[in-house]
Design a protein that fits this description.
The chain is α+β, with helices and mostly antiparallel strands and about 475 residues long. It has three domains: about 60 residues, no CATH class; about 170 residues, Aminopeptidase; about 180 residues, Aminopeptidase (3-Layer(aba) Sandwich), CATH 3.40.630.
Length: about 475
């Protein structure tokens, strides 16, 4: 494609000459000095020349076709990008363990190139201003329901919890800004994690909060973001990653149903048309169907304290050994992820007479804004993080958890059908989703895993993994040379 910097001459336009009035109208929007490539996206694209200039500013951000959501669709899809990456191919039968490709020691020192008008920025989240900018970007652009009625509303406290576990690195909080006005228009982060993949212990990263501004959505900013993050992760000697997507890529190590929902405040959920609820119920029936006890029935269930950390670690280590993909936690990490923080997360434990902890359950909070509603402005979801049952039945512990979450003002409780969650999901009236979420490992091959062998904790802050995040993850392993 040829881009022009000025209007075509009479000869180029076939002898048709524009009137001075029309030319003046076309030039009216042009600012003095360098143009802001991000602002250009907001311009009207009715005129051919304006379309060309927008394409010129952002032509490196073009994106191909959408990715398949099912294995059947994936069989007929050509993965031009993933065919060049160290991941297993769809249909391969893997029986061995180890890296798909040996480590390339040559890592470039210079940042990856961005199109003119954009610059990299390492976000210092200790600055309230920067943290506020990130909140604004995510809350306006991260993800929303298809009908544009519900949108995330991440708090600064939640983001610090999700992005600053022990051993986090500043350079892994990566942003993209517009040069002209310093507006934050892209973000991606990685946090370190030691995991056990079957019998192999491995240090890798979890990719989180991949977000591109709506004006640049479905553009090629995503692969550029991940390419630079990959380079920075490689500089620390880490070459594997874990991520999830709602689309099928080469190749899922495990797949499970999408988020299941259990209504805690059915009246409000029906009024805001919350997705996933049973559609054949009137309000009276919904209230009766989702009724919960007023109080918990497990005696001795109490909130976790800091002094419980060592005993919770011991309880987790024993339970996590049952899974094929599980985190290897330190005392500091247990304290960070599980110690209750107001409006961020909650953990409850059950203590035996001899002082040992036998059971525990933990969930975290994700708030959303309700848009264009005459009454409701917010929605609070509790998301299951982890549960261990040695003395009580899982269904009994989770019913008490629903009671506790409702008492704390949550409107809905969410869970995946991983671990042994199937033992309570249907019994406790969680709705069934027809969507799937897929788990992936980059540059690591191993046999496939059933959902009951993958704990929620491995991707504890990935609550909603839908089509747009799937598209983001489609380029999440761009190699750097």
């Amino acid at each position: 494609m040829v881009f022009r910097d000025k209007a075509p001459t009479d000869g180029e336009s076939g002898g048709l000459k524009k009137s001075k009035k029309k030319q003046k109208r076309e030039n009216a929007w042009r600012p003095e000095g360098p143009r802001d490539p991000f602002a250009m996206v907001s311009l009207s694209t009715d005129k051919k020349k304006e379309q060309q200039e927008i394409q010129k500013a952002l032509h490196l951000f073009s994106l191909g076709t959408s990715l398949p959501k099912t294995l059947q669709q994936a069989k007929n899809h050509t993965y031009r990008f993933w065919d060049t990456q160290p991941v297993t191919k769809l249909g391969d039968h893997i029986t061995t363990h180890g890296p798909v490709e040996e480590v390339d020691a040559s890592i470039r020192n210079e940042p990856c190139l961005l199109p003119q008008g954009f610059s990299w920025d390492t976000l210092d989240l200790s600055s309230p201003i920067v943290l506020g900018e990130l909140c604004h970007l995510l809350n306006e652009n991260y993800m929303e329901e298809d009908d544009n009625t519900i949108r995330f509303n991440f708090s600064p406290e939640y983001l610090l919890w999700a992005l600053q576990p022990p051993n986090w690195l500043l350079q892994w909080n990566l942003g993209v800004r517009v040069d002209a006005n310093k507006k934050l228009v892209g973000f991606i982060a990685a946090v370190p994690a030691d995991v056990r993949i079957y019998d192999t212990k491995k240090g890798l990263v979890q990719v989180k909060f991949l977000c591109v501004h709506k004006k640049l959505r479905l553009k090629r900013m995503t692969p550029v973001l991940i390419r630079e993050l990959t380079r920075r992760v490689n500089q620390q000697g880490i070459y594997q990653a874990v991520y999830a997507a709602g689309t099928v890529l080469p190749t899922p190590i495990s797949s499970c149903r999408y988020q299941r929902h259990r209504a805690l405040n059915p009246r409000k959920l029906m009024e805001v048309n919350y997705p996933g609820l049973k559609q054949n119920m009137n309000l009276q029936r919904a209230l009766k169907f989702n009724r919960l006890p007023e109080v918990t029935k497990i005696k001795g269930l109490r909130p976790m304290t800091k002094e419980d950390t060592p005993r919770i670690l011991s309880l987790l280590e024993k339970n996590l050994s049952n899974f094929h993909l599980s985190p290897l936690l330190s005392l500091q990490e247990v304290e960070h992820w599980f110690l209750p923080k107001e409006n961020v997360n909650d953990t409850y434990v059950l203590e035996a007479d001899n002082g040992t902890l036998t059971d525990m359950v933990s969930f975290y909070a994700v708030s959303s804004r309700v848009l264009n509603h005459p009454v409701h402005t917010s929605l609070r979801a509790a998301c299951l993080l982890y549960a261990v049952c040695n003395v009580t039945k899982m269904a009994d512990l989770m019913q008490d958890t629903l009671v506790l979450a409702k008492a704390k003002g949550f409107d809905v409780f969410c869970a995946l059908d991983v671990m042994d969650n199937m033992s309570f999901l249907e019994k406790l009236k969680f709705t069934i989703s027809d969507k799937s979420v897929h788990y992936y490992l980059y540059n690591w091959k191993c046999p496939l895993m059933s959902p009951d062998k993958v704990p929620t904790l491995i991707l504890q802050t990935v609550r909603v993994i839908g089509q747009r995040l799937g598209q983001c993850c489609a380029h999440s392993a761009v190699k750097t040379k």
